[in-house]
Design brief:
The protein has 11 helices and no strands. α4 packs across α5 and α7 runs parallel beside α9. The longest helix is centred in the N-terminal third of the chain and has 31 residues. It is elongated, with a radius of gyration of 26 Å.
């Protein structure tokens, strides 16, 4: 490697310095991350993939370290802890997506470096490193497919429908009934019935889609919907004042929208702001319609509005 390095021009040598330092640092970081995740990974398939990728990253790290002016690289414990928490809280599929995005960035950097390096030996080394990086990306994409990323649409459907439908229903119940336990009970009954209906619909739809397991699609949709039901109904069981309960419910809706948008933006590679805006507009729009219907009900029934 050293012969190739000293054979290049001074300008190319400086570029090589910068690129080699960058690659060595990022590959050492990836090596440490893969190895740490593999130690605590419960899925045998994902653990094996992580160990293979750690081996690739270590080989490429050694290659670039030989060319880098800097020889010692470190990864903070906080960064490793961050990925371990991601794995525990958001699951294997989410972590695989984040790692796949990192490999894409390094692969793009490799491709950009081809035009800067003329030495045949270094170009061969760069080609091998790029091949391994693309292989790592394939490994991670496989984990996404095997880990159930095809069912994320079912989860998003369940959460989205739960937010829009039940938040609207609870607003309507609040202005029609004005009694927190009645509102909570009506919301819970409506939510349970709707979650079962959504699960059945998702099951029937998945039967005509070859890539989906109908049982899992129905389960994911129903469970996601029911989780939203419990979170939105809870404030009405806790607070006697209907308006306080409504305010807390809208706070919960806002948090769920942001969490769902963030998860979807990372996992499905979509715009966070666009997804959050669409959900917020839908929830507020349905809530306004429900408010009008609930208010009209009280007007025509002779009950006071407030």
């Amino acid at each position: 490697m050293g012969l190739y390095y000293f054979a290049v021009s001074s300008e190319e040598r400086y570029t090589l310095y910068m690129d080699a330092r960058y690659f060595a640092h990022h590959l050492y970081r990836d090596f440490c991350t893969y190895k740490a995740l593999a130690k605590s990974e419960s899925s045998a398939g994902f653990r094996a993939a992580l160990l293979r990728m750690a081996e690739y990253a270590h080989e490429d790290y050694l290659f670039w370290r030989n060319l880098s002016p800097e020889k010692q690289f470190r990864v903070t414990k906080l960064e490793i802890l961050f990925f371990k928490l991601l794995r525990k809280l958001l699951g294997r599929v989410f972590v695989a997506r984040v790692l796949a995005d990192r490999t894409k960035k390094i692969a793009k950097k490799y491709e950009a470096s081809f035009g800067k390096i003329s030495d045949p030996g270094l170009r061969r080394g760069l080609e091998r490193a790029l091949e391994r990086e693309l292989h790592k990306e394939k490994e991670l994409v496989t984990q996404l497919e095997e880990g159930g990323v095809t069912f994320v649409g079912s989860i998003v459907l369940g959460v989205n429908d739960g937010l829009v439908e039940l938040s609207g229903a609870l607003v309507g119940f609040s202005f029609a009934l004005h009694e927190h336990t009645l509102i909570a009970s009506a919301g819970l009954i409506t939510g349970v019935a709707a979650s079962l209906s959504m699960a059945s619909s998702a099951y029937m739809q998945a039967r005509y889609e070859a890539a989906k397991n109908p049982m899992r699609a129905g389960m994911y949709t129903g469970v996601a919907y029911m989780a939203v039901v419990l979170m939105l109904v809870a404030p009405f069981f806790i607070f006697e004042d209907v308006y306080i309960a409504l305010a807390v419910m809208f706070g919960v809706v806002f948090l769920i929208i942001n969490a769902l948008s963030f998860y979807g933006a990372i996992l499905l590679e979509r715009s966070f702001f666009r997804q959050a805006a669409e959900l917020l507009i839908a929830s507020v729009g349905v809530g306004m319609v429900a408010f009008i219907i609930g208010s009209l009900f009280r007007v025509f029934s002779g009950a006071p509005l407030f």
